[in-house]
């Protein structure tokens, strides 16, 4: 019969339980992550302060602090969308790096997926930030075209991650 402590870590998790002589529970975390995943995740975590600074900037706009008086409502909306997409997509990219360690694609295709997962947030959020209209009622700037490009890169990359897990092992 499983103890309450054992039931905290069910079989659905990738962690395995091991008991030693002292009857304490140790977690066997399996294999280490690949060097490629470690580097890509490190770069993602290094980029997170820029997203946090973007959140601080967005908060100052929303509070209408000194220096943000000329930001239009439309620009605020673009900045909010850029910030939200950056944060969520970088977190998705971090998780996908670990998943790609189980990919059965060739190393070059796996690297392309890894890079695509980090290029997509840059393109999409860059499109929102750089494409924000300069004045109320203006057309969006030329960088708005980065958004569909980033969306295509994201779609290909996430589709690739999913398909890579469906390839049967030899």
List the helices and strands and how they pair.
Blueprint: H1 4-7, E1 16-19, E2 25-28, H2 35-62, H3 73-100, H4 107-131, H5 146-166
Antiparallel strand pairs: 1-2
Helix pairs in contact: 2-3, 2-4, 3-4, 4-5
Q: Could you explain how this protein is built, in words?
A:
The protein is elongated and about 60 Å long. It has 170 residues and is mostly helical. It is built from 5 helices and 2 strands, in the order αββαααα. Strands 1-2 form a two-stranded antiparallel ribbon. The two termini are 37 Å apart. The chain has 2 domains: 30 residues, no CATH class; 132 residues, Up-down Bundle (Four Helix Bundle (Hemerythrin (Met), subunit A)), CATH 1.20.120.
- Helix/strand order, N-terminal first: HEEHHHH
CATH topology value of the largest domain = Four Helix Bundle (Hemerythrin (Met), subunit A)
What ranges have pLDDT less than 50 throughout 5 or more consecutive residues?
A: 1-17
Helix content: 55-70%
Biggest pleated sheet: 2 strands, antiparallel
Q: Which terms would index this structure?
A:
2 domains, mainly alpha, elongated, 62% helix, Four Helix Bundle (Hemerythrin (Met), subunit A)
Can you summarize this structure?
With 170 residues, this protein is mainly α.
